[in-house]
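Project outcomes to date are best conveyed with an example. Our students and postdoctoral researchers have been running inverse folding experiments weekly, and each run begins with a structure described purely in tokens. The record below, which covers 307 residues, was selected by the lab manager from last quarter's runs and is presented without edits.
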């Protein structure tokens, strides 16, 4: 029975900005989910696939679970919580810098009610001294015991940046998945479309380049994406949606400098993804309070009915 393969769905959850997207990218060995230093970077469930001789893991990256203040926030929370009912295993991510805070405890309470197996992954261990990690693991073990009554909580420290603990985590995941045939072809890495990945790449560059100047009131919508027949070139026109005129000014920058910077950074990653040259044109448009407008959210791909 040594050749029996495993296959299952694994969701990655935790409070915002705990490193969910970074860990998923590291586990599959390829960048699919966008990352930034801002919380709530991920807005939708992103499905990626990791296949090897032991079997296949289908990862679902989710928005951070938090108390929503807008319709977009409600969508993000529902996207995160709805995956808990669909999966074989949950990876609960917690930072290595401290034991469980209030936000962590709220997520743990939610997970304890699902009945789905949980592995607690202590992230960013490269950012702290080794002596600090064991007390954090102990604190989480005690909290899980209080919530579930079980002594043997699965907890593992990892660093997505250095790779420490990543192979051990993969082994733990495969041990807990059911036996079964792969859901996807072995060369499949994601079920996201090139168009949606390109939109997320552009949004990532906005978050990284502007940091705190423009909040999360931005979205990206690709208007057209066409490959030329005469040569390996893709023409992409995309709108950057923001909530205020002042944000539009910041996104464009003096003499269009910031918009050019965003476009150059995004084009490099999109060209790598598509394997060809890209002609990227960006336009900035103001849509006041779009995060609370259900029709506008749907037009930008955030439809609660799709969850």
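After processing, the design step wrote out the following sequence:
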């Amino acid at each position: 029975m040594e050749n029996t393969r495993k296959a299952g769905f694994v969701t990655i959850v935790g409070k915002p900005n705990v490193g969910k997207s970074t860990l998923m990218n590291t586990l599959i060995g390829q960048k699919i989910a966008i990352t930034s230093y801002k919380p709530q970077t991920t807005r939708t469930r992103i499905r990626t696939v990791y296949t090897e001789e032991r079997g296949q893991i289908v990862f679902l990256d989710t928005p951070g679970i938090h108390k929503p203040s807008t319709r977009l926030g409600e969508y993000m929370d529902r996207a995160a919580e709805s995956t808990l009912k669909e999966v074989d295993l949950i990876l609960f991510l917690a930072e290595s810098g401290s034991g469980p805070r209030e936000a962590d405890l709220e997520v743990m309470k939610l997970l304890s009610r699902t009945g789905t197996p949980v592995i607690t992954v202590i992230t960013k261990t490269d950012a702290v001294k080794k002596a600090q990690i064991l007390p954090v693991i102990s604190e989480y073990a005690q909290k899980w015991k209080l919530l579930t009554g079980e002594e043997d909580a699965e907890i593992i420290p990892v660093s997505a940046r250095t790779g420490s603990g990543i192979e051990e985590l993969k082994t733990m995941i495969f041990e807990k998945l059911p036996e079964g045939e792969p859901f996807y072809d072995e060369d499949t890495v994601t079920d996201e479309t090139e168009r949606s990945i390109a939109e997320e790449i552009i949004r990532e560059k906005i978050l990284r380049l502007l940091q705190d100047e423009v909040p999360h009131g931005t979205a990206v919508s690709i208007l057209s994406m066409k490959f030329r027949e005469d040569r390996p070139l893709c023409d992409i026109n995309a709108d950057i949606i923001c909530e205020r005129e002042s944000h539009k000014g910041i996104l464009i920058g003096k003499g269009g400098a910031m918009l050019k910077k965003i476009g150059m950074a995004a084009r490099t990653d999109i060209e790598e993804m598509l394997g060809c040259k890209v002609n990227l044109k960006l336009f900035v448009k103001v849509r006041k309070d779009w995060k609370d407008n259900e029709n506008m959210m749907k037009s930008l791909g955030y439809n609660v009915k799709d969850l």
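The longest helix spans residues 130-148. The longest strand covers residues 233-242. The training component of this project remains on track.
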